[in-house]
């Protein structure tokens, strides 16, 4: 059955519904995974229907692969939407985007951007959460009452004003420096990599060592 005949069958069906119920039927695109009551109900019914015995209808390998990929993606997006982790990133990345600019930068830059986005960067505030003995303060601020958070490093530390002016937009914020154009993502990445070595950026070994030391100290 071609797509055209499927569309014709759908049209025929909705014409029947209209004449049977004397009502108006409107096709309207709505966003998925947005907890719209009617759509959630339709989704539940569709899943219930899909679990019932299906007519045996052979499909081509290409179609089977498309269906498998679609289902896998849908499951992944649902799990991501319902999950408890990564919520700080979820605000900005709530769907799968194959054309996301982060895909256009190098692996090393991707790691840096992702770490800054998740706030799991080897900065003192995060290292202090792993090991309470590690001071959480910014090493650049003389008065030393500033936590070295991602926001402090990227947006506020007065000692990094020059670097910020060179590499970040005039009014930097999370969106325009971490979820932006390819060039900006590259600049944001290079504005921060001076903080840790290439090896640490690539492997996360610094955080891992801190974690291991802390676990050892707890066991001792
Ligand atoms: Zn500072």
Automatic annotation (TrEMBL):
Lineage top rank: taxon: Eukaryota
A GO MF label: nucleic acid binding
Annotated ranges, domain RNase H type-1: 1-51
Protein's name according to its UniProt entry: Ribonuclease H
Organism in which the protein naturally occurs: Elysia marginata
């Amino acid at each position: 059955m071609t797509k055209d005949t499927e569309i014709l069958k759908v049209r025929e069906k909705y014409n029947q519904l209209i004449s049977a119920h004397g009502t108006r039927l409107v096709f309207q695109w709505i966003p998925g995974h947005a907890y719209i009551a009617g759509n959630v109900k339709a989704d539940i019914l569709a899943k219930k229907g899909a679990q019932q015995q299906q007519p045996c209808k052979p499909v081509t390998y290409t179609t089977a692969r498309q269906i498998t990929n679609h289902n896998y993606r849908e499951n992944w997006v649902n799990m991501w939407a319902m999950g408890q982790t990564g919520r700080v990133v979820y605000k900005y990345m709530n769907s799968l985007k194959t054309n996301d600019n982060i895909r256009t930068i190098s692996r090393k830059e991707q790691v840096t951007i992702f770490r800054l986005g998740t706030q799991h960067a080897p900065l003192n505030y995060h290292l202090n959460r792993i090991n309470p003995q590690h001071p959480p303060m910014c090493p650049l601020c003389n008065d030393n009452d500033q936590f070295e958070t991602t926001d402090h490093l990227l947006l506020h530390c007065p000692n990094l004003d020059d670097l910020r002016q060179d590499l970040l937009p005039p009014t930097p914020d999370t969106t325009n420096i971490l979820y932006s154009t390819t060039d900006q993502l590259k600049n944001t990445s290079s504005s921060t990599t001076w903080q840790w070595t290439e090896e640490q950026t690539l492997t996360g070994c610094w955080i891992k060592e801190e974690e291991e030391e802390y676990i050892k100290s707890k066991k001792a």
